[in-house]
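The pair is quoted verbatim underneath.

:::
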Amino acid sequence: MITNTELRERGMRLFNELYGNGAGEELRKDMADLCPDFTDISIEWAMGGILARPGLDAKTRELVVIASCVTLGHTVPQLRAHAQAALNAGATREEIIEVVLQLLFYAGGAAVRNALVNIRDIINAELNIEAKMS
């Protein structure tokens, strides 16, 4: 059986891989005065226990989470974070757009439009980097 310490370590590694080194500690500091348990639960359970499971790669998992955020419709900060994490995990701008567009008939036009508008700067940053390198 996996321990909480192992889940925390596995979750923190994945969190830092997807969101950048030190991101886990930044989240911990951000939530320390409000609800320190939130970070521990998020890192151990969500990242270490669910997102780090075998069976799907990190890119695919992040695309699934993006779809979930779009469908919920009220998770803009999480949508933005997972769009960046998907790019960091190897997803392309086109893949992210297709995942969001796939939800047009399931989540509705407003949810899809809002999602695209809210992640525009994140997914277009990749284009800006490529243009500068050309």
Q: What stands out?
A: Residues 57-134 form a domain with the AhpD-like fold (CATH 1.20.1290.10). The mean pLDDT is 91. The chain has two domains: 1-54, 57-134.
